[in-house]
Amino acid sequence: MNIQVDKSKLIPGTTVFGGSESRKGYRLNKFAMSFTRPENRDAFTADEDAYMEQFGLNDQEKRFLRDRDFRGLIEECGGNIYMIMKIGTCTGHGLYHIGAQLRGETFEDFMATRNAKGAR
Amino acid sequence: MAKIVGGIGSSHVPSIGKAYDLGQQDEADWKPLFDAYKPVQQWLATLKPDIAIVVYNDHGGSLFFDKYPTFAIGAADSYGIADEGWGTRPLPPMKGDAAFSWHLCEELVYNEFDITVCQELEIEHGFLVPMHMCFPHDPDWPVATVPVAVNVIQHPLPTALRCYKLGKAIRRAVEACERDLRVVTLGTGGLSHQLNGTRFGHINPDWDQDFLDKIEADPLILTKLTHQEIMEQAGAEAVEIIMWLTMRGTLSENITRVHRNYYAPMATGMGLIAFEDAG
């Protein structure tokens, strides 16, 4: 068999988004994908709880969303980074804010590790 | 007869698009990247292609995990600009050439590449960033395009070799078209980057430079890379580089490199390479 992803050889600090993640995160990612329509972004901003309810999110997903815990959404709920970024944009958390959370760092500490911070 | 006249590999980092829209091309940290595309723009203005086949991945612009195709091809006369969650970018819709796309689809499917045919497809940063970096668009784009969307975001992904073979099949399909068309192909994405886990921000400039060497001189060795090897060395999201192999597969061995650049300012190794193909 052609092994492209070796599940016995985990890459430290890395999530490989495959079938199990996509199944687990399906509702959450569908919720996030809805942010591609401005009226849905407005609806979320106007009443976050009511909007989350429409997508049948579970309590853990809702808690992470309320806490802006993007690491939890990605690592525990099957969130796909490209989908979760759409939520982050709506709540004012850009990719590097999410990235700093994932690394367990402050935004400033993460930015200090970069070569040319103006290109962001 | 239609023919492939060139191939371009380019990163498609969305922040490049944001910087472009904000007019930050001359700011110190962006200038090295934007200046690097000028020779490619000039070369393309001389090369005068009619069609650009753009191999890219959709990051939730118009494709979602309810039905995410491994390979999909746009077959429309126009492609709208997707709202990816941060509004629609101020770019004109992309011109298509539905007849040419359908020709490619027929050739590919009958040669055993079973692709999904899309008569409606909004395009997003994976496609747009390399296009507006390489081509002018005021008032309109100088080329018609064929979007070729590849799944590189939800494993299982097509193998590197399969992507290279797709390029070979695209070349044959182009050459089977009787219209007198000059075609360039773009392979987009990468190079090293990782956007998840505690390894977020991982880049590997040495690996990237080696990849740029090999995409020119020894693409076959790159087709042996597994997704695991790419992810270990260059980061989980670096698997996008398999789309450069589709571009390279469309080219003959009679190529000349006209430009190459590498810049890694933030969280992605941004690569650029351009080849002219004498056929």
How would you summarize what this structure contains?
The complex is a heterodimer of chains A (120) and B (279). Chain A has 120 residues and is mainly alpha-helical. Chain A contains 9 helices and no strands.
Describe the protein's topology.
The complex is a heterodimer of chains A (120) and B (279).
Chain A: H1 19-24, H2 26-33, H3 38-46, H4 48-54, H5 59-66, H6 70-75, H7 81-91, H8 95-103, H9 107-111
Chain B: E1 3-10, H1 14-21, H2 31-36, H3 38-47, E2 51-56, E3 71-74, E4 78-79, E5 94-95, H4 98-110, E6 116-118, H5 125-134, E7 144-150, H6 160-175, E8 182-188, H7 205-217, H8 219-222, H9 227-234, H10 242-249, E9 255-263, E10 270-277
Parallel strand pairs in B: 1-8, 2-7, 2-8, 3-6
Antiparallel strand pairs in B: 1-10, 3-7, 4-5, 9-10
User: Quick one: CATH superfamily of chain A?
Assistant: Dioxygenase LigAB, LigA subunit
Which H/E pattern describes the elements of chain B? EHHHEEEEHEHEHEHHHHEE
CATH topology of chain A: Protocatechuate 4,5-dioxygenase, Chain A
Mean pLDDT of chain A, rounded to whole units?
A: 95
CATH class of chain B: Alpha Beta
Global shape of chain B: globular
- Count of all domains of chain B: 1
Described by its quaternary structure, the protein is heterodimer
End-to-end gap of chain B = 12 Å
Unreliable segments of chain B (pLDDT under 50, ≥5 consecutive)?
none
Q: Total strand count of chain A, please?
A: 0
CATH architecture of chain A: Orthogonal Bundle
Low-confidence stretches of chain A: none
Please state roughly what percent of the residues of chain B sit in beta strands, choosing from under 5%, 5-15%, 15-25%, 25-35%, 35-45% or over 45%. 15-25%
- How many whole angstroms does the radius of gyration of chain B measure? 17 Å
CATH topology of chain B, which one?
A: Protocatechuate 4,5-dioxygenase, Chain B
**What global shape of chain A is seen?**
globular
